[in-house]
């Protein structure tokens, strides 16, 4: 039975990174220490220099270091192939990657053989060249050699784990985002520079290492996973808006859309738009609308003939209220003028600029570069133009809720060159019974 | 084994990071073509700036106490 697990590039890369760090530590710190210990400290305990013992020991330590160096060359190559495999999902990169990691693990494990030989020389042969046993040197030597063996074994185990993860991975694999890759590279490089700074006692390397590490973590922290491409957003919303527009067209409703405040409905926080069949018809009273069941997306009213429809921005209104952390009934227009721009620009990041001006006749709103495509109102000056963007209908619903009065869109102007949309909303006093 | 990094180096690193983050967050606050969490960037910039101010305060206290 073939075991198949999902490929996790992050775990594989972490294992390989850990192997690199351990091998760097062994090459730069532990093995040079053992060599200095044998060729320096042991002379104080009666050891006499002779090429007879020095040659094999040099040979063994060179072999250990060369094995670890070869593994160190293979691992970064495998890292590159893991990234290629995560992006391309091809069988060749997977096979080569597994092979390279396995080879690195094998060479790492092989380095234990010359290490065993070196240990044998120190513990047996060196006594023939005048070395006297002492707990003092033996304890230090044992500690260094034990640390080296444990590190080599751990590094090999990590490499074997990474090789297994890659070879057993299923075909369907998650994509490694560019941002994640940049963060990982920064963090890996930062850690390497910091390690090197300790070895070479260089403050420049510390600054570079800490800088890279901090930027790696900052980029990981500010990276956003919840973004949706604009084209996806437009595609998913446009179909709903198209259905609503088609319905309005087919029912021959000619009136302008009126956005009612929630007090018109039985269920609180209901946002609906009213489109009369004929222009210059009478505005229905709250009592007339109250009788209607607001749970339906679209309703046909007989007296007066009209359409009651949930606007495309209805859910957005709920989100705005939730984010403002204030009930619409408790805020006024001034609060909205101050806080809505910040909410739409900084919190929702829906627009690049937003401005709301309260004028005598109307409330003028300017929107720059909305995430929703601006309606081409110059071509489609129809009754349903207020349904072309979820944002414009959401603002109308917000205004209706805050002012507790019906609101309509009287004018929309758009500039396709600089993506500026100017909308004028008018508050309808209930005394005005005739709609235009 | 010495970690070659003193308090002055830390101040320099914090200053550079804080200024870069503050400028970046201000410049990119309404620029939507680059995807990142603006609130978190602003928070990171503020945290680094506060740390920088704290290190400066420590340095000033150190200088005053040695006079």
Percentage beta strand of chain B: under 5%
Fraction of helical residues of chain B: over 70%
Largest protein interface, residues of each chain: A-B, 25 and 24 residues
- Tell me how many strands of chain B there are: 0
Structural class of chain A: alpha+beta
Would you kindly provide a written description of the structure presented here, covering whatever features stand out?
The complex is a heterodimer of chains A (436) and B (67). Chain A has 436 residues and is of the alpha+beta class. Chain A has helices spanning 9-39, 51-88, 91-110, 112-123, 135-167, 178-200, 203-222, 230-250, 286-290, 314-324, 333-347, 390-403, and strands at residues 257-260, 272-276, 298-301, 306-309, 353-358, 363-368, 407-415, 420-427. An eight-stranded antiparallel β-sheet of chain A has the order 3-4-2-1-7-8-6-5. In chain A, helix 1 (9-39) packs antiparallel against helix 5 (135-167) and helix 6 (178-200) packs antiparallel against helix 7. The model of chain A is unreliable at 171-176 and 377-384 (pLDDT under 50). Chain B contains two helices and no strands. Chain B starts with 6 loop residues before the first helix and ends with a helix. Chain A binds chain B through residues 197-198, 201-203, 206-207, 210-211, 214-215, 218, 221-224, 227, 345-347, 349, 352-353, 369, 371, and chain B through 1-6, 9, 12-13, 16-17, 21, 29-32, 35-41, 44.
Short description:
With 436 residues, chain A is of the alpha+beta class.
